[in-house]
Design goal:
This protein is α/β, with parallel strands linked by helices. It contains twelve helices and five strands.
Length: 273
């Protein structure tokens, strides 16, 4: 399974010198559009030289800039694809195995690009109970936000799921500040309302954790942490299975991070039943 450009960046950014790292960060912040510009325009936007851009592209494994742009163009086409334009999936007499294999491949690829360092950093962010945590998702991913909020509200205080309409989310922005975390689920086709809330939260200094797909939601430009899960399966609909397992992995990590506090809260909750 071919890795996306964003996944390659995640895998290799630790070995990049400063200039190439800046190019990588600029691309992720404006993914994938900045990479579809000329080398000179990309270098100017990233604040590095044109040779640095070419070295960055080579480090990702591309033979030249045209091959790199071709990969981004393919990703952009996949990013904008509607369910109506996707294959209908396997025949009705044998739908189980292709779907099962695709989901297993998604899980394998997702966790191949999700490092222990990422897990530790995000778990520490979500464990910081000095502030509030807000969780929200899109049309199909909000159940994941609700599920994660239900668990985290047990192990730490001040966890809130943002439900209802966008106007209600905006009303909660007044309560968000620099100590707070906003965790957002957003997969293709990305939801404008989530992008608007993320931008306003970012302007208020809120730390944003984004759960998205391999093509990266535009919210990535505002996120402190980006968790990308594979979602494509042989169906008109994307699968959230990998994102669900990522969420459960982080729930477990936060529970371990807050071992004493979570144990105390669990005991008190049992006493209140």
């Amino acid at each position: 399974m071919t890795a996306s450009v964003a996944e390659l960046i995640t895998d290799r950014i630790g070995a990049m010198p400063t200039g190439e790292r800046r190019a990588a960060q600029a691309l992720v912040a404006n993914y994938p559009l900045i990479g579809l510009r000329t080398v000179a325009e990309f270098s100017q936007a990233a604040g590095v030289s044109s040779p640095t851009i070419l070295r960055f592209v080579a480090r990702l494994g591309y033979h030249n800039y045209a091959e790199f742009q071709s990969a981004l163009q393919d990703e952009l086409a996949a990013q904008l694809q509607s369910p109506a334009a996707r294959p209908p999936g396997p025949a009705l007499d044998s739908p189980v195995r292709p779907m099962m294999e695709a989901v297993i491949d998604n899980l394998r690829e997702t966790f191949r690009h999700f490092s222990q360092e990422q897990l530790t950093e995000i778990a520490q962010c979500l464990s910081d109970s000095r502030g509030h945590m807000f969780l929200v998702g899109g049309r199909f991913t909000d159940p994941l936000a609700r599920y994660m909020a239900a668990h985290l509200a047990i192990v730490r205080p001040n966890v809130f799921h943002l439900d209802g309409q966008e106007s209600m989310w905006r009303d909660r922005l007044i309560d968000m500040g620099k100590r707070d975390v906003l965790l957002i689920f957003d997969i293709r086709r990305y939801q404008d309302s989530l992008l608007r809330v993320a931008e306003k939260a970012h302007q208020r200094g809120v730390r944003i954790v984004l759960f998205t797909d391999q093509w990266l939601s535009p919210i990535a430009r505002f996120a402190r942490h980006v968790v990308a899960g594979r979602t494509a399966v042989p169906s008109p609909w994307d699968s959230s299975a990998a994102l669900f397992v990522l969420a459960e992995t982080l729930i477990a990590a936060v529970t371990r991070q807050l071992e004493d506090e979570s144990a105390r809260r669990l005991r008190e909750m049992e006493d209140l039943r």
